Amino acid sequence: MITRLFVKASIVAGFIILSANAAGADLSKRQSELKSIQTQISAQQNDLKNTSKQREKLITLLKKDEQAIARAAQRVNETQVSLKTITAQLTELEKKQTSLNKSKIGQQKTLSKQLSSAYLAGNHDYSKMMLNQQNPSTVERMLVYYQYLNNARIKAINELKTTSEQLVKVQNEQLKKQQQLNAVMVDQRQQAKQLANEQNQRQQTLTQIQRTLSDKGAQLEQLQIEEASLKRIVEQAVATAKSNPSMNGLANQKGKLKWPTKGRVSERFGSSRSGQIKWKGAVLTAPEGQNIKAIAAGKVIYADWLRGFGMVMVVDHGKGYMSLYGHAQTLFKNAGDNVNGGESIALVGRSGGQTEPSLYFEIRHKGQAVDPARYCR
């Protein structure tokens, strides 16, 4: 059995190595692309037209970086969940082992007492004792008594045997879970390392993008492009959203919903973003990796990377209502998935070129942005 467990652990380790090699090759390719773009930017620093072209290439590379971070973050999250699950299972097995050991000791003491009593009574000639009894009822009581003692010993022996077998089974299960725990811990270290590498690559790409956005005109242009991208996605979402009678919308939820994550509202709906561009949602500053939860039940109609907003999820709540969650580190749901209110759907991140971790959150009704503070308390 132990040999089989080591074979399983070896297979898991082999899978981890193959995954790490594939991720490493992809990262090396993107590092090479970044170096090539950096060289071109340096050679064409004074050519605005070419700089814009290089910026577009960098944004494409940023998309790849942030998608890679999302995959790595999801794997890290999965290993963390596995670690918690296996650790909890080991704790339960330890409790069960303690209980079985206690039962075994008690059963051994009971059986020992019964055997001692039988040994002490063994010097008597039961046949002679019963034949010497003058009262038949007394003889009958003696037979019942000794039969009871015999049955009690048989029961105690069987109980001890069952407990011993259960104890062996629990010990084998503990060994198996420990092997799984060790394999997951190895996987977690590898995935955490890969995540750190991806984040470093993203930072280098982001630094180059910021160099190409040195003037306010270029920054405003990027915001306009990002707004247009978001508008297009929302229009597509509205067009593809199918009416579902089971979804009641959010009209009756004003002031009753919880914010999708705990944090500080750093940008409010309607406040100025740049020039005439205003915020169509709220920005919540929160720790990276913190859970983002769906504000209400619905169906995911978009889950992908979007320029300026990073990893984005849009949830349809019915009757023309939808919620949008951006800048996520990773997404847990795909388009077409159903979600429950309060269910974890993503993690807070910095995707979309953000320098600080946050959540961009919108609520829309029939495609028009509404103040999320009217719905969330």
UniProtKB/TrEMBL annotation:
Gene Ontology molecular function, alphabetical: metalloendopeptidase activity
* Pfam families assigned to the protein according to its UniProt record, in alphabetical order: Peptidase_M23
- Residues annotated as signal peptide: 1-22
User: Residues annotated as region Disordered?
Assistant: 244-271
- State the Gene3D superfamilies in the record: 6.10.250.3150, Glucose Permease (Domain IIA)
List the keywords (alphabetical): Coiled coil, Signal
From which domain of life does this come?
A: Bacteria
Residue span(s) of domain M23ase beta-sheet core: 279-372
Residues annotated as coiled-coil are 34-103, 153-240
Q: What is this protein called?
A: Peptidoglycan DD-metalloendopeptidase family protein
**Organism of this sequence:** Shewanella holmiensis
Q: What is the lineage of its organism?
A: Bacteria, Pseudomonadati, Pseudomonadota, Gammaproteobacteria, Alteromonadales
